[in-house]
UniProtKB/TrEMBL annotation:
Alphabetized PANTHER family for the sequence: URONATE ISOMERASE
Domain of life: Bacteria
Family: Belongs to the metallo-dependent hydrolases superfamily. Uronate isomerase family.
InterPro entries per the UniProt record, alphabetical: Metal_Hydrolase, Uronate_isomerase
Pfam families reported for this sequence: UxaC
Protein name: Uronate isomerase
KW DNA-binding (keyword) present: no
A GO molecular-function descriptor: glucuronate isomerase activity
Gene field: uxaC
Annotated keywords: Isomerase
Enzyme's top EC category: isomerase
Taxonomic classification: Bacteria, Bacillati, Actinomycetota, Actinomycetes, Micromonosporales
The protein's Enzyme Commission number: 5.3.1.12
Naturally occurring in which organism (per UniProt): Micromonospora coriariae
UniProt xrefs under HAMAP family: UxaC
Pathway: Carbohydrate metabolism; pentose and glucuronate interconversion
Length: 477
C-alpha cells in the first residue's frame, strides 16, 4: 500500500493509546488489500489505458462529490456528468476542476475530503492543497502524474498491494472484459480481478425495462424465460457462467430486507403477472422477497456467498434521474427492518453453515438492536462493513463499539470499500485499518484483550477474514 505521510491520522490522541494503536496499525498496514465488493469498471484493468484528465478520473464519476455540489445549486451537468436526456454538459476538464475547487469548502469534515486529500498525497505524491487559488497548479501536477507509465491502472493495482478486486456485473453482461483479464492472466477463478453476480435488473419488476431484461436473460442463457421454471434455469446458468469467470459471491440491492418462502406455484403466478405487465408494487416486493430465498437455495448448490445491500430508496431525486440516470447521487437511505423481514429465509436456511449471507445496512440504528444479535445467533449470517452513507471514520468506530459485544469480531467480514473510485481503494482500506487499530488499542489498554490477541485480530480484520468469508482461496474454503 502507499505510504501515508501522517503517521497518526485517525489514531487516538491519548499518548498511551496512540502508542498501542501505532503498533497494531503497523501490522495491518503491511497486509495486502482484499476488495471483495465494489463497482470499478473491469475495462479499466482489462484495457489498461492511461487515465483521462484529473477531473474525468476524480470528480465526474464520483457521486459523493457531485451530489454535495448539487445540494448547493451546482447542477451535475456543470461537473461533466453525462446526461441521458441529451442536454449539454461541460466537457473541459480544467473548467470542471476549477468549478469543483471553488466549492471545496463544502467538504470540510466529510470523509470525501479525507479520501480525496489522501489520494492526492499518497497515490499521486502531490501535496498542493486544493482551493480556488491552487486549482490549476494541482490540476497540472495530477495531469503530469497521469501521463507517466507508473500511473496506468495495472501499475497502480500492483502498487496499491491489491491481492483480489471484485467488480460487480449484471447477468446481462457478456463478461467480455473479464474474459480479456483471464486471457492476460489477471482474471478467472482464483484471479486477481473477479466478477460478482448482481441480478437486480432481472429480479426487480420495478426496474426500468424488467421484462425486456428477462427476455435478454433467456437469450444469453439459452433458456425459455417465458416461464418461471425457465427463468430459474436461466439464472442458474448465468451464475455458472459468472463462477467460471471467477465470481465467488452474488449481490442483491433490494429496497428492503424482506424475504418470503413462497410455494413454486405462487411464485410462478407473480412472475406471470410481471411478464404480462400487470404486477403492482406489492407484487414486485413479494417477488423480490421470494427471490432472496430462492437465491439462498442456489447458493447452497453452487457456493456463491450471498450479499444483501438493502435500504436505499433509489432515484429519490426524480429530476436527477430523469436528466442523468441511475447511480449519480439521487438515492437516499431509509429505515430498514431485519428481524421479521429475514425470518422466512432464516427459518429455512439460517442454521446451515454452508450458506454465507453478508448483511449490510444504511440504517445505523439497527447495528445494536437487530444486526449484531442476528449475526450472533445464526450460522449463515455475517455483518458487512458500514456501507455507502455510513463508510466514514465515525461510523466505522461506532460499528465496532455497537456490534462487537454481541457479535464479536468473527461474525463480521472485514472492510468492504464498495467504491467506483479506483484510486481511493487504498485510502479507504487504510482508514478502516486505522479505526480498527484505535478500537483494539482501547481494549488492550482496558485489559480486556491481551496485546498478542489484538495483534492477531487486526490482521484477521484487515486480510484473513475477508479472504476467507468471500472464498478467495476456493469455494467454501
Amino acid at each position: 500500500m502507499p505510504t501515508f505521510d501522517n503517521t497518526d491520522l485517525l489514531l487516538p490522541p491519548e499518548p498511551g493509546l496512540r502508542a498501542l494503536a501505532r503498533e497494531l496499525y503497523a501490522l495491518a498496514a503491511e497486509q495486502p488489500i482484499i476488495s471483495p465488493h465494489g463497482h470499478v469498471d473491469p475495462a479499466l484493468l482489462a484495457e489498461d489505458r492511461p487515465f483521462p484528465d484529473p477531473a474525468q478520473l476524480l470528480i465526474v464519476p464520483d457521486h459523493y462529490l457531485t451530489r454535495m455540489l448539487l445540494s448547493q445549486g451546482v447542477p451535475p451537468s456543470d461537473l461533466g456528468v453525462p446526461a441521458r436526456d441529451g442536454s449539454t454538459v461541460e466537457t473541459d476538464g480544467r473548467v470542471i476542476w476549477r468549478r469543483f475547487a471553488a466549492h471545496w469548502h463544502l467538504f470540510r469534515g466529510t470523509p470525501s475530503r479525507l479520501w480525496l486529500e489522501q489520494t492526492f498525497r499518497t497515490v499521486f505524491g502531490v501535496h498542493t492543497p486544493l482551493g480556488p487559488a491552487t486549482a490549476d497548479t494541482l490540476y497540472d501536477e495530477l495531469a503530469a502524474r497521469l501521463a507517466e507509465p507508473d500511473f496506468r491502472p495495472r501499475a497502480l493495482f500492483e502498487r496499491f498491494g491489491i491481492e483480489v478486486l471484485a467488480t460487480t456485473e449484471s447477468p446481462l453482461d457478456d463478461l467480455g472484459q473479464h474474459a480479456k483479464l483471464a486471457a492476460d492472466g489477471w482474471g478467472g477463478p482464483g484471479g486477481r480481478v473477479v466478477t460478482t453476480f448482481r441480478p437486480d435488473d432481472v429480479v426487480d419488476m420495478e426496474f426500468e425495462g424488467w421484462s425486456t431484461n428477462v427476455d435478454r436473460l433467456g437469450e444469453l442463457a439459452g433458456e425459455d424465460t417465458g416461464t418461471y421454471a425457465g427463468y430459474l434455469a436461466a439464472l442458474r446458468a448465468r451464475r455458472a457462467a459468472f463462477i467460471a469467470a471467477g465470481a465467488t459471491s452474488s449481490d442483491h440491492g433490494h429496497p428492503t430486507a424482506r424475504t418470503l418462502d413462497l410455494a413454486p406455484q405462487e411464485a410462478a403466478r407473480l412472475f406471470d403477472r410481471g411478464r404480462r405487465g400487470e404486477a403492482d408494487p406489492a407484487d414486485a416486493e413479494a417477488f423480490r422477497a421470494h427471490m432472496l430465498v430462492e437465491f439462498a437455495r442456489m447458493s447452497l448448490d453452487d457456493g456463491l456467498v450471498m450479499q444483501l445491500h438493502p435500504g436505499a430508496v433509489r432515484n429519490h431525486n426524480r429530476w436527477l434521474y430523469a436528466r442523468h440516470g441511475r447511480d449519480v447521487g439521487g438515492d437516499v437511505p431509509q429505515a430498514t427492518e431485519y428481524v421479521h423481514g429475514l425470518a422466512p429465509l432464516l427459518e429455512r436456511y439460517g442454521n446451515d453453515p454452508r450458506l454465507r449471507v453478508v448483511l449490510y445496512t444504511l440504517d445505523e440504528d439497527t447495528f445494536t438492536r437487530e444486526l449484531a444479535p442476528l449475526a450472533g445467533g445464526y450460522a449463515a449470517l455475517l455483518l458487512g462493513a458500514p456501507w455507502w452513507f455510513l463508510d466514514s471514520p465515525e461510523v466505522l468506530r461506532r460499528f465496532r463499539e455497537t456490534v462487537t459485544e454481541t457479535a464479536g469480531f468473527y461474525n463480521t467480514t472485514g472492510f468492504v470499500d464498495d467504491t467506483r473510485a479506483f484510486c481511493s481503494i487504498p485510502v479507504r482500506h487504510d482508514v478502516a485499518r486505522r479505526v480498527d487499530a484505535g478500537f483494539l488499542a482501547r481494549l488492550v489498554a482496558e485489559h480486556r484483550l491481551p496485546l498478542d490477541e489484538a495483534a492477531e485480530t487486526i490482521v484477521d480484520l484487515a486480510y484473513r477474514l475477508p479472504k476467507r468469508v468471500f472464498n478467495f482461496g476456493g469455494i467454501n474454503q
